[in-house]
């Protein structure tokens, strides 16, 4: 007899796969400027299906864009791994893993009015309930953000 979906045991995911039982999606994209838009589209196609409100979907898109862009600009990665993970329609995790080659970890900076960049992590900090980083595999970093729905 099959278990109801909410009681299904978590299974390992294949790269690029989606497993409705654990409400997690992993995808890997080349470290190219065009991949930022592809990552945003993946967020937009998955997060509403998981029942998150429009505000969380918008925030998740922005956070993914900023974290992906940082991995693209500040590391020597050829590929960037992205993970979306939902918990009970109240908490959404956005993670971006690079292959290394950058600094020890991300650090927000104060951008002047004339700077064209430097505001990404400040935006992430403003949108997320929590964020941080940890060592990834093979010398890379994983930068994550936790978004919370009030609904």
From TrEMBL:
UniProt cross-references to CDD domains, sorted A to Z: HATPase_RsbW-like
Protein name, UniProt field: Histidine kinase/HSP90-like ATPase domain-containing protein
Lineage: superkingdom: Bacteria
Stretches assigned to the Histidine kinase/HSP90-like ATPase domain: 30-129
Keyword annotations of the record: Kinase, Serine/threonine-protein kinase, Transferase
Gene3D superfamilies assigned to the protein according to its UniProt record, in alphabetical order: Histidine kinase-like ATPase, C-terminal domain
């Amino acid at each position: 007899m099959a278990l109801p979906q909410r009681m299904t045991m978590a299974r390992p995911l294949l790269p690029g796969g989606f497993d409705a039982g654990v409400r997690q999606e992993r995808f890997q994209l080349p470290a190219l400027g065009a991949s930022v838009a592809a990552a945003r589209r993946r967020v937009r196609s998955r997060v509403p299906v998981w029942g998150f409100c429009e505000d969380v979907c918008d925030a998740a898109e922005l956070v993914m864009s900023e974290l992906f862009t940082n991995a693209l600009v500040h590391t020597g990665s050829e590929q960037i791994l992205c993970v979306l993970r939902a918990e009970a329609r109240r908490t959404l995790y956005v993670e971006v893993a690079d292959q290394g080659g950058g600094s020890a970890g991300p650090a927000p900076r104060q951008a002047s009015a004339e700077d064209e960049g430097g505001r990404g992590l400040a935006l992430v900090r403003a949108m997320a309930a929590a964020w941080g980083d940890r060592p990834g595999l093979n010398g890379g970093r994983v930068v994550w953000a936790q978004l919370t729905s009030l609904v």
